[in-house]
Automatic annotation (TrEMBL):
It comes from the Bacteria. Its cofactor is Zn(2+). The keyword Hydrolase applies. The active site is at 637 (proton donor/acceptor). This is Peptidase M14. Pfam families: Peptidase_M14. It comes from Paractinoplanes ovalisporus. Residues 1-27 form the signal peptide. Residues 345-680 form the Peptidase M14 domain. Keywords: Hydrolase, Metalloprotease, Protease, Signal, Zinc. Transmembrane segments: none annotated.
Length: 692
């Protein structure tokens, strides 16, 4: 493969997986180095500084021989190119600045001697799988090299089909937390089923030939004639979900209990707030202590000049108007500062108001302002404001704890609108088919199923009505200027970082102590009502032995460990060999059931422990259930990438895809959850047989 083709392939993968490191914005651009020259006809590997990304794209389009991944530096781009003396002159004339001659072609004899003296590396396939979806065959591989410390080693995979057709593609080095993991690439389209793959490296290493295995390699039971499905026809808000739960309980009283989880959430509400002054010049942020819906929306605040000398800072609160009379000196000039006013309001009305100085306004004279109106800023006029009771459906013929239990829960993250569609579609299939399908009836008679469609109703209401990318709940633990209303879309706790095992508070990676971060872990482990509800549910029903946490998007199928510590990338303890086999074997079954709906295949590289196939997620709920409560816990990420045959690219679908896509996700992943129930039934039967 040519250098240009290799770089384009690598760039495609990097664009999906890696954000190039950049120096701080304030770093000064380096001075131009002394002029570099090449002898006539000489070639060299040269590091250039390009003025911008556009220049890099022009080089790629022109087929330039890019030798390594470009890097950003102080607004410019550093790129390594193989050029001869003529190309060096052309690039210099186009504004590229040669920074370093890394290697010259004249060094070849010396390098050959060194290469002959070096020992070739050893390569090993970690994965080699093929599958067919949408009439197209794909191959995905992972290869590990023993040259783990060499960041420049290149690995190429060569494939062969039964008719002798061959081809090859490069792999990309993958590191996590500074530790080498393997080389890989996204699934590659092939003309037919591959029968052999081999790998070679730039160091001279070669793998043994491997026959790729079919993925996922399991066959789900056929859907019987007359099987009922397709019970969702629109995105569903928490209000809609609550109505659906109520309807199912009324429609199937012999098969359903509704469980009110013990911890009420904050509800769809916030404190009321206003800027007193001009945030661009001088302002104090005044905030209500009660929530806006508790009589504080519409309260007015103003500052006035008393018009008299030697007056102290004073206030009155009457008829829902807070009037602040600013202090004056002997000449009657206002002398109150923003700091004075903020401190005074907080001290004078601690049960009703708090205030802080806007960033950049400290110590400046307080302006005469008002009246301004306090408001909670919420836009969802149809959403109940009261604390919310999270509900679970309990489905089964026998619901006394004597049957093996399965938990499916979704929408921990508010913006993942498709996930409650999955769990509700799953619940409806079990209930609607009970009377007409013997297989469903046997499952519902054998297993105790728990479904929590919306773990995070407050955040979901905010996502539907105010800010669709809201990830967290609505509890605002921020203090001081972090409570500025300009940060309203960044408040809340990431519930899937708020559990006790492998948590941020224990030094694990993948969560934050910054209240404005998207992965804010909260003030303490299980500080939030929503995470406490998940734990309370499983503790109250110890027969729950399997659980699936439904997220979106990306098409992952995962299990513990889900977190590691950065130093040395030390994960939580790995499952035993037998447990790991159970996780993977079950995954194959469930992935097969998902693909039966519309051919969607979860990639083998996206199937495995969370910490290995996605990232470290400190304090996530699957780790909590597995390590703390002994539950076999998985995670879905619904919404698999879709292959675009025209562009020859994998394309993401997002958190809130067009409903047709969300509907498709609900249908295929509900089928996966039905297979999870079969897994629970079969595991219980096997354990019973072992005891006999």
């Amino acid at each position: 493969m040519s250098s240009r083709a290799r770089w384009v392939a690598v760039a495609t993968v990097l664009a999906l997986t890696v954000v190039p490191a950049a120096l701080p914005a304030q770093a000064a651009a380096p001075e131009d180095p002394p002029a570099l020259t090449l002898a006539s006809g000489e070639a060299a590997l040269v590091r250039f500084r390009l003025p911008d990304e556009a220049a890099l794209q022009r080089l790629v389009n022109q087929g330039a021989d890019l030798a390594a991944r470009p890097r950003n530096q102080a607004g410019a781009v550093l790129v390594d190119l193989v050029v001869d003396d003529r190309q060096l002159a052309e690039l210099t004339g186009q504004g590229a600045v040669p920074m370093q001659v890394i290697q010259r072609s004249s060094q070849r004899p010396q390098l050959r001697t060194q290469l002959q003296a070096a020992q070739a590396d050893t390569l090993q396939f970690l994965q080699a799988y093929w599958w067919t979806t949408g009439g197209k065959t794909f191959l995905q591989t992972q290869v590990a090299t023993t040259a783990t410390d060499d960041p420049d080693v290149e690995i190429t995979v060569t494939w062969r089909t039964a008719d002798g057709t061959t081809g090859s593609f490069p792999l990309v080095r993958f590191e996590d937390s500074g530790e080498y993991q393997y080389h890989y690439t996204l699934p590659r389209p092939l003309p037919a089923k591959p029968v052999q793959v081999t790998a070679t490296s730039s160091l001279g290493g070669a793998s043994r030939a491997v026959t790729p295995a079919a993925w996922p390699g399991a066959t789900p039971p056929a859907t019987p004639s007359g099987y009922q499905k397709d019970f969702v026809d629109a995105y569903m808000t928490p209000v809609d979900v609550r109505a659906r739960i109520k309807r199912l309980a009324r429609q199937y009283p012999n098969l359903v209990d509704v469980i009110n989880l013990p911890n009420k959430t904050q509800g769809y509400r916030r404190t009321a707030v206003a800027y007193l002054g001009n945030p661009a010049a001088a302002a104090v942020v005044v905030e209500s202590v009660p929530f806006g819906d508790q009589g504080m929306n519409g309260v007015q605040v103003r500052t006035v000049d008393p018009g008299l000398p030697n007056r102290p800072l004073a206030a009155t609160y009457r008829d829902r108007v807070l009037t602040l009379r600013l202090a004056t000196d002997a000449g009657g000039k206002v002398i109150s500062t923003t700091d004075d006013v903020a401190a005074f309001v907080t001290a004078r009305y601690p049960q009703r108001f708090r205030a802080f100085v806007e960033d950049g306004s400290a110590g400046v004279p307080m302006p005469i302002t008002g009246p301004v109106r306090l408001d909670d800023g919420l836009k969802g006029t149809e959403v109940p404001k009261a604390p919310w009771t999270v509900q679970a459906l309990r489905i089964g013929k026998v619901r006394d704890g004597s049957k093996p239990g399965v938990l499916a829960y979704s929408q921990e993250h508010a913006r993942e609108w498709a996930t409650p569609l999955v769990t509700l579609e799953f619940a409806e299939r079990l209930l609607a088919n009970y009377a007409t399908d013997a297989t469903t009836r046997e499952l519902v008679d054998s297993v105790d199923v728990f479904v929590v469609p919306t773990v995070n109703p407050d955040g979901a209401n905010y996502s539907f009505n105010d800010y669709n990318f809201q990830r967290k709940n609505m509890v605002n633990h921020c203090t001081g200027t972090s409570r500025d209303p300009r940060y309203r879309d960044s408040w809340g706790v990431d519930l899937n970082r708020n559990y006790t095992v492998g948590s941020f508070f224990d030094g694990y990676v993948g969560a934050s102590g910054n209240c404005l971060s998207g992965t804010y872990a909260g003030t303490a482990e299980l500080s939030e009502a929503e995470s406490g509800n998940v734990v309370a549910l499983v503790k109250a029903h110890p027969n729950i032995g399997l659980a699936m946490n439904v997220h979106s998007y990306g098409g992952y199928f995962m299990w513990p460990p889900g977190a590691y510590k950065a130093d040395g990338r030390v994960t939580l303890p790995r499952p035993t060999i037998d447990e790991s086999k159970f996780f993977l074997d079950s995954a194959r079954r469930i992935v097969s059931a998902i693909s039966a709906e519309r051919g969607t295949v979860t990639w083998p590289s996206y199937t495995g422990p969370v910490a290995d196939v996605l990232y470290s997620a400190a304090g996530n709920s699957a780790d909590e259930l597995y390590y703390q409560l002994g539950i076999d816990a998985w995670d879905f990420e619904v919404g698999n990438d879709r292959w675009n045959e025209t562009t020859q690219q994998w394309e993401g679908v997002g958190f809130q895809p067009p409903f047709d896509e969300a509907h498709g996700e609900s249908q295929e992943y509900a089928g996966g959850l039905v297979e999870l129930v079969r897994v629970a039934r079969d595991k219980a039967a096997a354990e019973s047989s072992d005891r006999e």
